[in-house]
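Quick question, first post here. What does this chain look like in 3D?
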Amino acid sequence: LRSDHRCDDTFMGACSGDGVLSCSTVLGDTWATVLGLPLTVYAAAFFIVTLFYALLGLAVVLSSRIWAGLLDRSRGGQALALLSGLLGVATVLPALTGSWPVALVSGLLFGGVFLSVVASTTALVRHNLPPSQWAVGISAFTIVFAAGQIIGPTVVGFIADGPGGLARGLVFSAGALWLGALLAWRQRPLMPDAGS
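> Answer (accepted):
Ran it through. Tokens below.
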């Protein structure tokens, strides 16, 4: 049995065809067979993927501690701006290079930031509205976030299906995050210490 999977030529570049098998070009092969692929390549590929997601998960777990001080101090949109900007960097890095270390940095940064972006909107509401209005404020952000979760992937999917592929989609996503960061940066506190 031959696989339709082709690995790219970058060192440790991950590849997949129909999603059944992932492999790595540790041995420099340009093709692989499902049954004949050396065990070391399978082991390396699974180790790399496992390491990547384990570190991403660890970054997610640590992110609340990393950003707690910023979220406590930021009364305006500055925390949301900083975190959105960093998420944009994490998003664009894989579009710039296929390097394994860069992909790892991107995953660590993404894991360490993405949930804190959502937390920053909650903190913004809590710092700027009286407790009786927190539910309304958080609901408004949730609705906007939900709409973005529908529109964003749809638009990026159309872009990624065109010339430039996924890299172009990632660049567009990063650009949207950076635009959001600029808009958030302009948000000043509505009421100093309203939720404290």
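The beta strands are 14-16, 22-24.
The mean pLDDT is 78.
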